[in-house]
Design brief:
Elements: H1 16-36, H2 40-43, H3 47-65, H4 71-94, H5 96-103, E1 107-111, E2 114-115, H6 117-123, H7 127-136, E3 145-150, E4 156-160, E5 169-170, E6 173-174, H8 178-181
Antiparallel strand pairs: 1-2, 1-3, 3-4, 5-6
Helix pairs in contact: 1-3, 1-4, 4-5
């Protein structure tokens, strides 16, 4: 068995700038992809979703590092991902338009006991997924739901008809007023 010298772990087969640019491209592509395919991917994870994330991670890894298998190359890619994530998090806090693009907006799934079928279809949800969230909130019948909202983080908030308020909070933001707009 042939052993390579330890210095080989730090010899890049691809230039550091190429690794950073490949990682940036993969990060942006994944951010856009998850945004296009909706909030459901973030909140209601199924076995199929886990399998897809693992396969995507493997495919994207190859796109980021190319032929480079060095430790240094992996550290450059990991560092780039950490910096990109930090920058997106900061920009998300500072810029409302960017936050809305990255996270989306809450979507009303049920309003005054009625399913919003168009929104369910657009978000890739079915009645069963919303009914599971309703049961978690002690609500058994859609007719007793004042408001069910798919939040920007993928969670489903349920407000029963007998609730004293229609304010639903998600990460410090409120969906108050969505019932009137019907969005």
């Amino acid at each position: 068995m042939h052993m390579q010298p330890l210095s080989a772990m730090f010899q890049l087969q691809v230039g550091p700038l190429a690794l950073v640019l490949r990682t940036l491209g993969a990060y942006v592509a994944m951010l856009v992809g998850f945004r296009i395919f909706g909030k459901r991917e973030l909140g209601q994870v199924t076995v199929f979703d886990v399998a897809m994330v693992l396969l995507i991670a493997n495919a994207v890894q190859n796109a980021m590092v190319g032929p480079d298998t060095s430790l240094l190359g992996g550290l450059i890619v990991a560092g780039t991902l950490l910096v990109l994530n930090f920058m997106v998090a900061r920009l998300r806090i500072r810029d409302r338009m960017f936050r809305r693009w990255v996270e989306g907006r809450p979507s009303v799934l049920v309003s005054n006991g009625r399913w919003n079928e168009d929104v369910l279809r657009r978000e890739g949800l079915d009645h069963g997924e919303v009914e599971a969230a309703m049961r978690q909130n002690g609500v058994l019948d859609v007719g007793t739901v004042r408001l069910a909202v798919l939040e920007d983080n993928g969670a489903i908030s349920v407000v029963p008809v007998d609730s004293p308020t229609i304010s639903v909070h998600s990460r410090g933001r409120s969906t108050r007023g969505l019932l009137k707009r019907g969005k």
